[in-house]
Design a protein that fits this description.
heterodimer; A: alpha+beta; GMP Synthetase, Chain A, domain 3; four-stranded antiparallel sheet; two-stranded antiparallel ribbon; 6 strands; B: alpha/beta; FAD/NAD(P)-binding domain; seven-stranded mixed sheet; five-stranded parallel sheet; 10 helices
Chain lengths: 187, 425
């Protein structure tokens, strides 16, 4: 059941190349060691601009085809100027994007044609924690919910299986659901 | 030094099946066994364990279950008797209490060193078992002192094997891992009055029976157990799948996470880490349960499809199937568990077993192992070292390689290749 047997299914994902990469990197695991990078710079108030240009992997330095920027700020309700999404919202965007990319890839591998994939991601958050108003309240999300509306040539169970598999293979999902060591230093 | 054509290492059901096929081909051999025949079943499993497979499926070359309960499940003691009797019936040349310490290459074959005699042989078959040493994640080291540790099966120097609930201290028990051993131990420990928390990662859910037949009947009848290692799409995954979530009981009861929740066992996320005395539980519990539910549904759907076509004669008149009830995940699911509060007094690690091939260290110059330390083989043929073979590993040649029933065809193939090697082919 490979994509080549059913060329009519096209989600725009080159599954052959992904499978080739999996085989090649299994034989040369050093090439699978990636470093993802982002830079952020304070602009004013709580407004900062993040940029993403380079990463390393496949045994060398790599560059995106252009530099991507992301403005982050807080809404006016926090006495800020709302020049961008809040960082927690950017985390939700990252989760939705990661799962959505996974859905496209898994669906392609399983010969499922997607017509539309929409996610609504909500994060429940008690901000008494970040405000320092209640030390018992953690800073993090209490919970995150992702709701997908998917139109595809497949049964509901097949679509559910694609969504489940995309969670199993998602870097952002795994990073949010498991502990990750974070080190911060300063010059 | 003693001479023999073939040395078989290990006198479990697998090594004995190899012995039987060697004998059929007139290849002289010995079977070296570190303890007694069927040692793992005597010493390395908990007291109440029964086979996951029904008695009728316990088939070995020239031998099968002959009792009056074909649909039952043998206890560990019954498995020992079953395998012992097989060794006698085929007159296997077993040398018991002989521990292999090293295998080395020589011109034209191998030297097998033991704590008794040293053997020279033209070929060696390793049948010492795929599940002998408990695999425990490194996070164990971060567990606070004062909590007792057990391995669900097998044992190691600093990790005794679990035997029965009375073997654990009073108080709460954390069982890590929801495979066959984890769910069975969770159930019996909880019944003993020790409150159990079960940490759940990926698992292989299946009902004990479906449409009146044991689930293994369906897997056998539909040909699923015969799936070949060189034909399935993701062999690496198939070889590392957790064991089927099953238990062998006289009632043929299904033991899944819902049954455990109903019994009062607390289901939590996978044990992801231990930080400052607090266990960190993964937030992926809902998804691992969804994955297992969907896979169980697909498994049963495949049975139905087979029953409607190829299996029509064998399945006429069977009742309709019971649908897979979704796993109920307790909400909210805790993300932390305080290991210093005294609530948890012991941890049972049901986190898997691996083989012990330490005696192959003498062949260290050969590329025998992959980067994960797994023995490289092509369906039991260790191509890096001609004349060396292995059996009894998960999905060695077929899905059923893990089961007693898989030993016959695996041994047949390996011995056939071995005979060709001896003949210089």
């Amino acid at each position: 059941m490979t994509a080549t047997e059913s060329p009519t299914v096209d989600n725009g994902v080159n599954v052959g190349a992904l499978l080739d990469a999996r085989a090649a990197l299994s034989d040369a695991p050093a090439g699978a060691q990636f470093q993802w990078r982002a830079e952020t710079e304070w602009l004013k108030g709580t407004h900062s601009r993040g940029s993403v240009k380079t990463f390393s992997g496949l045994g060398g330095e790599q560059t995106h085809i252009s530099t991507f920027t992301f403005d982050a700020d807080h809404p006016e309700h926090f006495a800020a100027e709302d020049q961008g999404a809040t960082p927690v919202e950017i985390v939700l965007v990252g989760l939705g994007a990661c799962l959505t990319g996974g859905i496209a890839s898994v669906a392609q591998l399983r010969n499922i044609q997607l017509r539309s994939v929409k996610a609504t991601i909500t994060g429940e958050h008690d901000i008494l924690g970040i405000l320092g108003a209640d030390p018992e309240v953690p800073n993090r999300f209490k919970s995150i919910n992702v709701h997908f509306d998917i139109d595809a040539d497949a049964t509901p169970d097949e679509i559910a299986a694609v969504v489940a598999q995309s969670q199993k293979r998602s870097a952002v999902y795994d990073s949010l659901t498991n502990p990750v060591a974070v080190a911060v230093d300063v010059n | 030094m003693l001479h023999v054509t073939t040395v078989v290492i290990g006198a479990g059901h697998g090594g004995l099946a190899v012995s039987r096929h060697l004998a059929e081909r007139g290849i002289d051999h010995v079977v070296l066994e570190r303890n007694e025949v069927a040692n793992s079943w005597r010493a390395q499993r908990w007291d109440s364990l029964r086979l996951l497979t029904p008695n009728w499926l316990s088939r070995l070359p020239g031998y099968a279950y002959r009792g009056d309960d074909p649909d039952g499940y043998m206890s560990a003691q019954q498995v020992v008797a079953f395998v012992e009797n097989y060794a006698k019936e085929i007159a296997a040349p077993v040398r018991a209490n002989t521990t292999v310490t090293a295998v080395r290459r020589t011109d034209g074959g191998y030297v097998v060193e033991t704590d008794q005699e040293t053997w020279r042989a033209r070929s060696v078959v390793i049948s010492s078992g795929g599940a002998t040493v408990p695999v425990v994640p490194d996070i164990r080291a971060a567990v606070p002192d004062g909590i007792e540790h057990r391995a669900a099966a097998g044992s190691a120097q600093d990790l005794p094997g679990y035997r029965n609930p009375a073997d654990l201290p009073a108080g709460g028990v954390l069982v890590v891992g929801p495979s066959a051993s984890g769910i069975q131990i969770a159930q019996e420990v909880h019944s003993s009055g020790r409150p159990v928390t079960l940490a759940v990662g990926e698992h292989v859910r299946m009902p004990r029976t479906y449409r009146g037949h044991d689930v293994l009947w369906w897997m056998d009848a539909t040909g699923l157990l015969d799936d070949r290692y060189d034909e399935i799409p993701d062999l690496a995954r198939a070889r590392t799948l957790p064991s089927m979530q099953l238990v062998g009981t006289p009632e043929r009861a299904t033991l899944d996470l819902n049954a455990l929740t109903r019994a009062g066992v607390r289901i939590v996320g996978r044990l992801a880490g231990v930080l400052d005395g607090t266990a960190q539980l993964a937030g992926s519990l809902t998804n691992v349960c969804t994955l297992a539910d969907l896979k169980a549904k697909r498994l049963l759907k495949g049975f139905d499809e087979w029953a409607a076509t190829a299996g029509a004669e064998r399945t006429a008149g069977l009742p309709a199937g019971e649908p897979v009830e979704p796993t109920v995940v307790p909400q909210p699911s805790p993300q932390e568990l305080d290991l210093r509060s005294g609530e948890i007094r012991s941890i049972v690690w049901a986190t898997g077993l691996r083989p012990d091939f330490g005696f192959l260290a003498g062949l260290g110059e050969l590329p025998l192992f992959d980067r994960k330390g797994r023995l490289r083989h092509d369906g039991g043929v260790i191509t890096a070292s001609p004349g060396l073979y292995v059996t009894g590993l998960p999905f060695l040649r077929r899905r059923k390689s893990t089961l007693i029933d898989g030993a016959d065809s695996d041994a047949d193939h390996v011995v056939s290749h071995l005979a060709g090697h001896l003949a210089g082919q």
